[in-house]
């Protein structure tokens, strides 16, 4: 379980990047041809898939409700800067809550 939550900072960083670079996220979402994507966009897509797999696995943890909300946020349309930033802020809060809930006994 500790290895699972050790990946949380990676996905927190992913959410911070998508908050800071919303124009690039919009480009990835709207891109039609996969072959024309630069390496950075491929890395973004691969990380997105890993993030989705991680969230689905997180549904089997004691913080399943937080992961369920993260999963449902994935269905929110992200075609505007506001929606991408709102998704990123909510996701960052939920990821931090999952970490705090998992490791509150250490603090």
Short account of what is shown:
The chain is mostly helical.
Structure description:
- This protein has 107 residues and is mainly alpha-helical.
- The chain has helices at residues 2-6, 8-20, 22-30, 39-58, 64-73, 81-103.
- Helix 2 packs antiparallel against helix 6 (81-103), helix 4 (39-58) runs antiparallel to helix 5 and helix 5 (64-73) packs antiparallel against helix 6 (81-103).
- The protein is globular.
- The mean pLDDT is 84.
Mean pLDDT: 84
Rg value: 14 Å
Structural class: mainly alpha
What percentage of the residues does DSSP assign to strands (E)?
Answer: under 5%
Offer a few descriptive terms:
107 residues, mainly alpha, 6 helices, 75% helix
Helix-strand blueprint:
Blueprint: H1 2-6, H2 8-20, H3 22-30, H4 39-58, H5 64-73, H6 81-103
Helix pairs in contact: 2-6, 4-5, 5-6
